[in-house]
Amino acid sequence: MDWISRPSGPLRGTLTVPGDKSVSHRALMLAALAEGDSLISGFLEGEDTRATAAVLAQLGVSIETPAAGERLVHGVGLRGLRGAGRPLDCGNAGTGMRLLAGLLAGQAFDATLIGDESLSRRPMRRVTEPLASMGARIDSQAGLPPLHVHGGQRLRGIRYELPVASAQVKSALLLAGLYAEGETEILEPHPTRDYTERMLAAFGWPIEFAPGRARLTGGHALRAIDVQVPADFSSAAFFLVAASLVPGSDLTLCAVGLNPRRTGLLHALRLMGADIEVLDERQSGGEPVADLRVRHAPLRGIELPGELVPDMIDEFPALFVAAAAAQGATVISGAAELRVKESDRIASMATGLRALGVQLQETPDGAIITGGTMGPGAIESHGDHRVAMSFAVAGLVAKGNVRIGDCRNVATSFPGFVELANRCGFALADA
Ligand code: S3P
Asked: What is the pLDDT of residues 119-160, one digit of tens each?
């Protein structure tokens, strides 16, 4: 499925983007392992999170959908899952597969995790190796999926210093730690999103955590709670950039999750001169949320501060577009992890932006992007949802139509993107 994004007038209005993907995955998993029924509201109806729900259903968890954006999970308790007897399909979701690998490592039964073409190319040693040192037995295909997780292993807690900042790896180990004897302690080179830690505490599991470290012991129980999922900052990001770039824009995004480990792009855009107001800051479901009002403002290039990188790891495709339309050069470094996301995001964005006439120098861990005008052109999303949506934003300010190839995976994280975008002033259509 290809899209055409056309130059448009101002973006205006008030909108709510779908629920947070990271929170939705975790809410399903913890609710499944809890004792009692948990109602998840604001659940992301994306393919990634639906894949996780389907996997848990295969493992014997009954999950109802009282309404769109809601899941009622009948928890089976820590030892209540049962083997599925057939492969568990995580679709496009790295979060789904990596967290489930940790969760499954301590079960009594064998399980095989599979994924789509993109997920089948993503590195899994980062979870299988530390899980193995906890006593897990997981076979991979030279470090890639499918993962075959052997059941009936005795896990023991470990103290593990993550070599790269990764909330997925941290979370996988904490989930395995629920089943381990003794203490599991995770130390991070830079703090990453702490949803697993916060949610474990909310489900009643004793856990100590602070930015950059988390510690728990096995052998407790999770108690069902209701979870309110905030709107996904990563989905709001496309609109923050779009409204900053299109003259006359004034857009408000409602109830966006502002976990500090997610808001690096907000700081980066402000450094570039963006006009973004954080309104009505409040707590929802244990997470900070606020409405974000973004108005057009001319952007200038920046040298991206390295400490922002982990806090905006999913927002680089959007930042690349902001940089391409800014005045002057933007220097991005320390972001080599982008090469192992749903696509190699440095290469995907560099190739696409160059096709639109942008001057860009790719580096192993980032890029130097010289801002200016973007021409019309045709680009490939490489099946990467965030690359596709970022080029939809580029099309708003290009000097002609931008054709974007292979946009079907946008449904993994942002169902209804085209409709919502067009409602506030995008000119986006199927090609
Ligand atoms: C996620 C962590 C990040 C992020 C991904 C979601 C999570 O991945 O890119 O979209 O929910 O834990 P890494 O842990 O690989 O950095």
From this structure: 999 999 999 999 999 999 999 999 999 999 999 999 999 999
Nearest-atom index, ligand 1, CA of 193 = 12
In the chain, the amino acid numbered 394 is: A
pLDDT of 286 > 90? The answer is: no
Residue 397 has pLDDT above 90, yes or no: yes
CA–centroid distance, residue 11 to ligand 1 (Å): 29
Alpha carbons 94 and 398: distance in angstroms, whole number: 32
Q: What percent of the chain has pLDDT over 90?
A: 99
Ligand 1 mean position, distance from CA 362 (Å): 23
DSSP string, 274-342: -EEEEEEEEEETTEEEEEEEEE----B--B--GGGGGGGTT-HHHHHHHHHHSBSEEEE-S-GGGGGSS
CATH topology of domain 3-19+230-430: UDP-n-acetylglucosamine1-carboxyvinyl-transferase; Chain (3.65.10)
pLDDT recorded at residue 111:
98
Model confidence over 189-217: pLDDT tens digits?
999 999 999 999 999 999 999 999 999 99
* Ligand 1 pocket, residue 314 CB under 6 Å: yes
Q: HSE-up of 176 (CA within 13 Å, CB side)?
A: 39
pLDDT of residue 171: 98
Contact 131, 171 (CB under 8 A): no
166 lines ligand 1 (CB under 6 A): yes
Going from the Cα of 41 to the center of ligand 1, the distance in angstroms, rounded, reads 21
Residue 116 falls in the annotated catalytic set: no
> What is the dihedral sign for C-alpha 313, 318, 321, 326?
negative
Q: Is the CB of 167 under 6 A from ligand 1?
A: yes
User: How close is the Cα of 100 to the center of ligand 1, in Å?
Assistant: 13
Per the residue annotation, which of 314, 384, 406, 430 is the catalytic one? Answer: 314
Task: Decide: 52 in ligand 1 pocket, CB within 6 A.
Answer: no
309 CB within 6 A, ligand 1: no
Record: fold of 21-228: UDP-n-acetylglucosamine1-carboxyvinyl-transferase; Chain (3.65.10)
